[in-house]
């Protein structure tokens, strides 16, 4: 497995029409220092998804950033992504692990559920995501999970732990202090007037200066 799941983990904005062209937004967040990018698009426009994911994959490859595809293992394989992220509605983790082989990341959403985390580990997950940590502007229906989930999850595994949901410049430091290895954001980056500066600011506040 190449790359690491650590630091700021930027998820692309699924809104259509896009407020900022996807390529422009990804280029800015990479310039700001993000080195984990997830392509997240909830539409059924397969041609656009394929085209966009291939474009983001190429942008990530240029700077050796890790590229993850949300939900869709076939798309991840088609664009030679570094991994896939799976939630509760996205299929069987063990089957995805087998389909992707040992060299690509399989990330699994555990929400606030440690039983789900145990099952994900047993099924071969490489990293575990927890959240929503705060009310999320992107997913307002998501239940909020206490910060103590990271200490509890750390007792289960050494795998990277990712925090997601409502994380911004004001609260990212308390999430990393609670034990998250990586912090996934949508709105704190894609909703910013200056995506490059917002990315650099989140990294500095959450992780200190990254090289
Ligand atoms: C890093 C990361 N963590 C959690 C999620 C959420 O996955 P899921 O619950 O499947 O919800 P959708 O993103 O598919 O709406 C994620 N995408 N990435
Ligand atoms: C996909 C997802 N899953 C839980 S919250 C969330 C959205 C995160 O977006 P934001 O960083 O804008 O709250
Ligand atoms: Mg999903």
From TrEMBL:
Co-factor requirement: Mg(2+)
Binding site for 2-[(2R,5Z)-2-carboxy-4-methylthiazol-5(2H)-ylidene]ethyl phosphate: 136-138, 166
Binding site for Mg(2+): 71, 90
Reaction(s) catalysed by this chain's protein: 2-(2-carboxy-4-methylthiazol-5-yl)ethyl phosphate + 4-amino-2-methyl-5-(diphosphooxymethyl)pyrimidine + 2 H(+) = thiamine phosphate + CO2 + diphosphate; 4-methyl-5-(2-phosphooxyethyl)-thiazole + 4-amino-2-methyl-5-(diphosphooxymethyl)pyrimidine + H(+) = thiamine phosphate + diphosphate; 2-[(2R,5Z)-2-carboxy-4-methylthiazol-5(2H)-ylidene]ethyl phosphate + 4-amino-2-methyl-5-(diphosphooxymethyl)pyrimidine + 2 H(+) = thiamine phosphate + CO2 + diphosphate
Enzymatic class: transferase
EC code(s) of this entry: 2.5.1.3
Domain spans labelled Thiamine phosphate synthase/TenI: 8-189
Domain of life the protein comes from: Bacteria
Molecular-function annotations in GO: magnesium ion binding; thiamine-phosphate diphosphorylase activity
A biological process from GO: thiamine biosynthetic process
Pathway in which the depicted protein is active: Cofactor biosynthesis; thiamine diphosphate biosynthesis; thiamine phosphate from 4-amino-2-methyl-5-diphosphomethylpyrimidine and 4-methyl-5-(2-phosphoethyl)-thiazole: step 1/1
Keywords: Magnesium, Metal-binding, Thiamine biosynthesis, Transferase
Annotated cofactor note: Binds 1 Mg(2+) ion per subunit.
GO-annotated cellular components: cytoplasm
Residues the entry annotates as binding 4-amino-2-methyl-5-(diphosphooxymethyl)pyrimidine: 38-42, 70, 109, 139
Function: Condenses 4-methyl-5-(beta-hydroxyethyl)thiazole monophosphate (THZ-P) and 2-methyl-4-amino-5-hydroxymethyl pyrimidine pyrophosphate (HMP-PP) to form thiamine monophosphate (TMP).
Family: Belongs to the thiamine-phosphate synthase family.
HAMAP family: TMP_synthase
Protein name (Swiss-Prot/TrEMBL): Thiamine-phosphate synthase
């Amino acid at each position: 497995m190449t790359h690491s799941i650590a630091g700021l983990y930027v998820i692309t904005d699924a809104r259509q029409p896009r407020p900022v062209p996807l390529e422009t937004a990804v280029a800015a967040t990479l310039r700001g220092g993000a080195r984990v990018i997830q392509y997240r698009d909830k539409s059924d426009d397969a041609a656009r998804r394929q085209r966009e994911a291939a474009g983001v994959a190429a942008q990530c490859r240029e700077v050796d950033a890790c590229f993850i595809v949300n939900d869709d293992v076939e798309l991840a394989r088609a664009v030679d992504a570094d991994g896939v992220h799976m939630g509760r509605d996205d299929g069987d983790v063990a089957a995805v692990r087998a389909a992707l082989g040992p060299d690509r990341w399989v990330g699994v959403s555990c929400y606030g559920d440690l039983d789900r985390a145990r099952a994900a580990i047993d099924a071969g997950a490489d990293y575990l995501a927890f959240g929503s940590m705060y009310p999320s502007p992107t997913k307002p229906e998501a239940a909020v999970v206490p910060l103590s989930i990271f200490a509890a999850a750390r007792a289960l595994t050494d795998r990277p732990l990712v925090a997601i949901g409502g994380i911004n410049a004001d609260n990212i430091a308390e999430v990393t202090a609670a034990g998250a290895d990586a912090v996934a954001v949508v709105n704190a980056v894609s909703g910013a007037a200056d995506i490059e500066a917002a990315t650099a600011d989140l990294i500095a506040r959450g992780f200190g200066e990254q090289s």
